[in-house]
Amino acid sequence: MSETIILGWEEWVSAPGLGLPALKAKVDTGARTSALHASVIEPFGPPDAPQVRFLIQPDPDNPGLEITCSAPVTDRRNVTSSNGETELRFVIQTELQIGDRRWPVEMTLTNRDQMAYRMLLGRTSITEGMQVDPNSSFVQPELSFDLYKAIPRKRPTKRPLRIALLTREPDNYSSKRLIEAAEARGHVIETIDTTRCYMRIGGVAPEIHYDGKVLPRFDAVIPRIGASVTSYGMAVLRQFKGTGAYCLNSADAIGRSRDKLLAHQILSQAQIRMPVTAFAASPKDTKDLVGLAGGTPLVVKLLESTQGRGVVLAETRKAGESLIDAFRGLNASFLVQEFVAEAAGSDLRCFVVGGKVVGGIKRTAAEGEFRSNLHRGGSAKSVRLTKAERDVARRAARELGLQVAGVDILQSSDGPKVLEVNSSPGLQGIETATGKDIATMMIMHLEAQVRPLAQLREGGLRKPKSGKRLA
């Protein structure tokens, strides 16, 4: 019978199979599953024998120390953290060593960048012959991060990214510019028709099929999903994310922005100013609905309208009530909104990339038209945005979770008001009016998010030929 070893609530451990000679682990019997810090998680290998590569910074105080690890994937599992958030994680099995004891451990991979401990040792990993003393720490022999000095280090290698441009319109201006910008920076970009994708859901490795073949793994996806296929496009985008691809805008963020009622509720909760908006399901509320929106003139807008379609101005109360009743008769989902007269048929389009406003234009409606959309014949000119306008644009994109957004703002008498947030903003108007290379800015932001794995060492496995901190 093996000797009983005592573990403190924190211990030094090593993971020889991953090439990690020293890690500080929190020993937590309250957690069922063990977890290991991992970023830039990259699945690879055949579907029947999937593996995963990932980057780890073993020393929380030295983010420059980066190690690349790889291991076979044994499962993918939903894990609920202590704060109640559920995350689908890769599960691997590797050997851990504490003192002289070495044993196999199953652990999930998750980003613990904000945690003081790069590993959490749960109760299922504490084997027979081990006891935990919650009042002690570092009972077993101590290690040191100096052990990593013996590992040869190289600079991370810049590599071209494989990018999927998810669009049904590969020949429009925005698609062509994104392709041009990506290729100019040395990346491989492929256009994929959203509606021609179909999915195999289940198993360890998610699959996306296209024209009878399984799509290869992409490093990143730029979603340009049309409004008519929003629901299916979001499902496809979630499947891409499941393969490990970075999505420039997430499916959830796109869904929030496309549902205008939900978007307005989110922005309102964040105290972002908007035109007064009203919504009701019952025809008995029509008269009161007009009053809630501030009377006439008012705007009636379909919840999933785009490019100005489904947006109608009612100049009188009678016209407003008739319009609302007509929309209800079509079983359409819509909202009623205050008409900001002082905007005089103009609005500002603020283009946000990665939390920064990279360009702004003023759009003015064509004569006899109140909608300023360029697709409706409106004109655009470059403008210098005020600090208040830039701030509200950044906040609106952030609250909806969008990395890239076109935030439309009305200049009202009491300050900027967010009219709408577009998750697939067109590039032609903003680039033509400002002369800025917005497409390249989007690709550069994508590059910053999809970090190439450091070429340090493939810890423990040969690469297949196929190619404020918390505790």
From TrEMBL:
Cofactor (UniProt): Mn(2+); Mg(2+)
Domain (ATP-grasp): residue spans on this chain: 264-447
GO-annotated molecular function: ATP binding; metal ion binding; ribosomal S6-glutamic acid ligase activity
One GO biological process term: SOS response
Swiss-Prot/TrEMBL keywords: ATP-binding, Ligase, Magnesium, Manganese, Metal-binding, Nucleotide-binding, Protein biosynthesis
Keyword Repeat: no
InterPro entries named in the record: Asp_endopeptidase (IPR008503), ATP-grasp (IPR011761), ATP-grasp_RimK-type (IPR013651), ATP_grasp_subdomain_1 (IPR013815), Peptidase_aspartic_dom_sf (IPR021109), Rimk_N (IPR041107), Rp_bS6_RimK/Lys_biosynth_LsyX (IPR004666)
SUPFAM superfamilies: Acid proteases (SSF50630), Glutathione synthetase ATP-binding domain-like (SSF56059)
Superkingdom to which the source organism belongs: Bacteria
This protein's GO CC annotations: cytoplasm
Cross-referenced Pfam families: RimK (PF08443), Rimk_N (PF18030), Zn_protease (PF05618)
NCBIfam families named in the record: PRK10446.1, rimK_fam
Family per record: In the C-terminal section; belongs to the RimK family.
UniProt protein name: Probable alpha-L-glutamate ligase
